[in-house]
Design goal:
Elements lengths: L11 E5 L14 H10 L4 E8 L5 E3 L4 E2 L8 E2 L22 H7 L4 E6 L5 H11 L5 E4 L3 H9 L6 E2 L3 H12 L3 H7 L5 E5 L1 E2 L2 E2 L3 H9 L3 E5 L4 H10 L3 E4 L2 H9 L2
Parallel strand pairs: 1-2, 1-13, 2-6, 6-7, 7-8, 9-12, 12-13
Antiparallel strand pairs: 2-3, 4-5, 10-11
Helix pairs in contact: 2-3, 3-4, 5-6, 8-9
EC number: 3.1.4.46
InterPro entries: GP_PDE_dom (IPR030395), PLC-like_Pdiesterase_TIM-brl (IPR017946)
GO molecular function: glycerophosphodiester phosphodiesterase activity
Length: 256
């Protein structure tokens, strides 16, 4: 991994949709949430979700529907033109930001960008290219096609993490103890971002961490909010913690 995205300190703290201490009154994926996360540490990575407006503009939004202020019914972001975003205030007074604006507003921050809409791929790439942000973004998606389509439009390579199918292939390789199979399964990305467990099945294991590190890949675990669990995972060797509580993660990791 030669991209300078990876030069920051480890274990990495990835602030899940920024930092929202009071979700009942505040909005994730907003500039206020990003500000709060970066106040914890300038090294925090902002994890954000990307949807697309009707005209294909990439916006920081987890769900395809959102509720504007004023008690209006939820509306679909795919029905909204980007030009209308500044007039659509959210209940906490924030507006839905574009990825382009976020990369400009925070010119030194690193972003973990989860592409949730195929329509957003072109604008995600354009925003990264225009901001010359190749060394401070990590692209991910549950869809390998969305991730590859976006990276193909970039002027320079960026850091990436695995799709759902690629994660499954890596887990299979680790389960059968095949380092060669693992290297082949992980050849197209730099990191696996995974939950510690899927139901009763343990996903993150010392063996998986060893196989990933032997192949030159990182392991980031989501979404972890208990300091004791963070410390245990870091002791296991994971490279990053995706969390709603970057403040607690910072203290837990400092003390580990």
């Amino acid at each position: 991994m030669t991209n300078t995205f990876w030069t920051g300190p480890r274990p990495r703290i990835l602030a899940h949709r920024g930092f929202v201490l009071h979700p009942e009154t505040s909005q994730g994926n907003s500039f206020a949430a990003i500000d709060a996360a970066l106040e914890v540490s300038a090294d925090v990575i902002i994890e954000t979700d990307i949807q697309a407006t009707a005209d294909g503009v990439a916006v920081l939004l987890h769900d395809p529907h959102f509720t504007p202020a004023g008690g209006l019914a939820p509306i679909g972001i795919r029905a909204v033109q980007a030009s209308a975003l500044p007039s659509l205030e959210l209940p906490d007074g924030q507006t839905v930001p574009t990825l382009r604006d976020a990369l400009v507003q925070y010119p030194t921050a690193r972003f973990n960008i989860d592409i949730k809409a195929a329509l957003a791929c072109v604008d995600v790439a354009a925003a990264i290219n225009d901001a010359r942000a190749w060394n401070r973004v990590l692209l991910t998606s549950f869809s390998r096609n969305r991730r590859l389509r976006t990276t193909q439009l970039l002027e320079r390579p960026v850091a990436t993490s695995a799709s759902s199918r690629e994660v499954a292939a890596c887990l299979t390789a680790a389960s059968v103890r095949s380092a060669r199979q693992f290297r082949r399964a992980s050849a197209r990305f730099d990191a696996l971002q995974i939950p510690e467990r899927a139901g009763r099945i343990r996903v993150v294991t010392p063996r998986l961490v060893r196989f990933a590190h032997a192949a030159g890949k990182e392991i980031h675990v989501w979404t972890v909010n208990e300091p004791a669990t963070m410390a245990r995972l870091v002791a296991m060797g994971v490279d990053g913690i995706v969390t709603d509580r970057p403040d607690l993660a910072y203290r837990a990791i400092e003390g580990s």
